[in-house]
Amino acid sequence: MDKVLRINMGAEGGPSAKAVDVGQYAGLGGRAMTSAVVSKEVPPLAHPLGEDNKLIIAPGMLSGTIAAMSGRCSVGGKSPLTGGIKESNSGGQASQVLARLGYAAIIVEGKPKENDLYKLYINKDGVKITRDNSLRMLGNYDLIEKMKAEYGDKIACISIGPAGEMKMCAASVAFTDMELRPTRHAGRGGLGAVMGSKGVKVIVLDDAGTSNRAPKDAEKFRAANKAFVDGLRKHPVTGEGLPSFGTNILANVINEAGAYPTHNFLWGRFAGTSLISGETEAEYEKARGGNPTHGCHRGCVIRCSGIYHDKEGKYLTKQPEYETVWAHGANCGIDDLDKIAVMDRLDDDIGVDTIEMGATIGVAMEAGLAKFGDADAAIQLLKEVGKGSYLGRILGNGAAVTGRAFGIERVPVVKGQALPAYDPRAIQGIGVTYATSTMGADHTAGYAVATNILKVGGYVDPLKPEGQIELSRNLQIATAAIDSTGMCLFIAFAIMDQPDTFQALLDLLNSFYGASMTGDDVTALGRKILKMEREFNAQAGFTKAQDRLPEFFKKELLPPHNATFQVSDADLDRVFDW
Amino acid sequence: MKTPMTGPDPADAGSAVKLRLSVTADRLACFFPLLQKGFAIVVTLGRPIHALLRDQLGVPESYIETKIQTVFLDGKPVDDIDTVLVRDGATLALAPAMPGLMGAMLRRGGYYAPMRSGITHRDDRAAQEIKEGRIVVKLFGAALWDLGPTFLKRGVQVDSGDLAKVMRELPEGCGEGPGGKEALANQGRVHLQVNAV
Description:
The structure holds 2 protein chains of 2 kinds. By secondary structure, chain A is of the alpha+beta class. Chain A has 3 domains: 3-205, Aldehyde ferredoxin oxidoreductase, N-terminal domain (Aldehyde Ferredoxin Oxidoreductase,  A, domain 1, 4-Layer Sandwich); 243-418, Orthogonal Bundle (Aldehyde Ferredoxin Oxidoreductase Protein, subunit A, domain 2); 428-572, Aldehyde Ferredoxin Oxidoreductase Protein, subunit A, domain 3 (Orthogonal Bundle). In chain A, strands 2-1-6-3-4-5 form a 6-stranded mixed beta sheet. In chain A, a hairpin with a 6-residue loop joins strand 4 (73-78) and strand 5. In chain A, helix 1 (30-41) packs across helix 19, helix 11 packs parallel to helix 13 and helix 17 (428-436) packs across helix 19 (467-485). Chain A is globular. Chain A starts with a strand and ends in a 6-residue tail after the last helix. Mean pLDDT of chain A is 92; it is low at 447-465. By secondary structure, chain B is an alpha/beta fold. Chain B has one domain. Chain B has helices spanning 32-37, 49-56, 61-66, 100-106, 142-154, 160-169, 181-184; strands at 17-23, 39-44, 70-73, 76-77, 91-95, 132-139, 156-159, 189-196. A 5-stranded mixed beta sheet of chain B has the order 2-6-5-3-4. A 3-stranded mixed beta sheet of chain B has the order 1-8-7. In chain B, 49% of the residues are buried. Chains A and B meet through helix 7, helix 8, helix 9, helix 10 and helix 17 of A and helix 1, strand 4 and helix 4 of B.
């Protein structure tokens, strides 16, 4: 990965591509790469859909190697949803393929002069950019079938659906999975709209004739990978819970904790949770010939995804994840897994973020556009988005826009981005991260990485009131670093509890690059990324006023615990006071 | 504003109609949504959660120590199962270690427990009379597979409407056999025993 592929969609004479030396970005991967490029090359006040914004696609530091779990791909740019810096990452095959092709990043810049659509084909011999308006308004599934017919089935694709073409703020960037289906998405922040603004419908990656990236010390690398895999397999979460039930195993416990947002964040419990839980979902999949234990890319050993079949036993969609089932389920009062799965399929095909769309439909239901619990009406609203009707255009721009359009006060967003599936009134600590993340409300911004192992920022006494501020800060630092490795964040469960597994991760990085990184270096990387992102946002006009939860979280009691969000504004302002 | 009820009301459990089902082992899972939503059982009250699980419910000590990592009493995460007492009408939920930051926060005695301190169960440790009473138990994750069949065999009290809905909505074939959905209508509480054959 010693080169960057720069694609200028606004070049004189038509779009052009040029591979250049990685230069100042050497050694960066994933989020570190995308945020570095955005902060150095995108004017903070640029319009997100304008020619000065850039779309950066970056594999992780260990992508393209035999390292397990190394297939996350980061997408970055200035977000049309939040107006700030954005990194959103996805599973799927593309990260491994892109890395084997030798690219540390694809940077798409400029803007076509005409309203044309393009497909990009990238293989070991170079890049071919083709204008192809026959792809216009194709859903991701039909689009990928066309690409298969044209390029064969040994490819990986990065694409947008109609939502991206219509430059909707909820538009995602789709990545194909092992079965060459467009089921994995860099969903958050509307980066699909940025891709659409560049006129890029699909990037086809073909790594025929390439091989895995070679580590500096192959023997140590193999040993570290074995220790890493052993650690993942022996841990009860990564070795048992996630493979058996997927991420939606969380539904019952979050519901029990009274933190499962229901009816647009009105209640903390949903009566129909047992009908849409991960446990029930897994039984459906087994009974219908689907599969509850399936990886989203080759080299995944956790295999938290799955294959969801309809009642007739035919493929419908990949296993809807926890956030998706919540967003289209409890948040909208819907307890029908099959209809939630239909919405998941529609989201993937239209190319929209499932969290944003579920939250948006919840706001629309509060506005009276449909009744809570009416799954058919929710499906119809999603179809409006796909069609691009006037109503669909409003909904496709997310919960904040929908709330404004219909005069709704209770809109669960931070920095314009919808809150995920944990109510911050019941779990105050997650509210700190929602409020202060550089990305807008994001449950993965401060994920579960062992701050007690990393000792990020020194020892924290979690029993002190300020402990939640410290923990949130440290988690955000650690997460930013993990997001740069290209490792799936779910490795965090094992490295949190098992210091030897965390050491195996460091050994993987060090033996591959011939480096000697320590936990302190990982911490420094995380801090550096967050600092870049905070500075970009400040120059884009963000102030501490954006580091706040919506007012109703402080005022409305959340049953069953009747809690409100209690962390003071002064404490929130201390999160990045380092 | 009223929160919808989840799970049966243990106070109603005394008047349950009895229903015995025999299903093949692979169909036991069809009844798991009932165990997730919660079932009522009769226990001796006034004991800590740990003792109740081991001595009354027959959960092996090693399983309690290593597998049951997430425990809720009346919707509040419990950190110390050796001191928290179970009261009449309580709802006890059992789960393994859960993923995500939220899973880590909810784990009993975990490093991130302070991040959910607002809802943590606070035990008043007041002594209670040792007497018989009813509680609602919920099983999540692998605890469903590991403990669910034993509870079903022993017998659990569930809401007839929930049972009928589960039998109607679960995959094809699970609603067959004696005591199908028609037999369940308007029965109120049902004492359900399910044997795997």
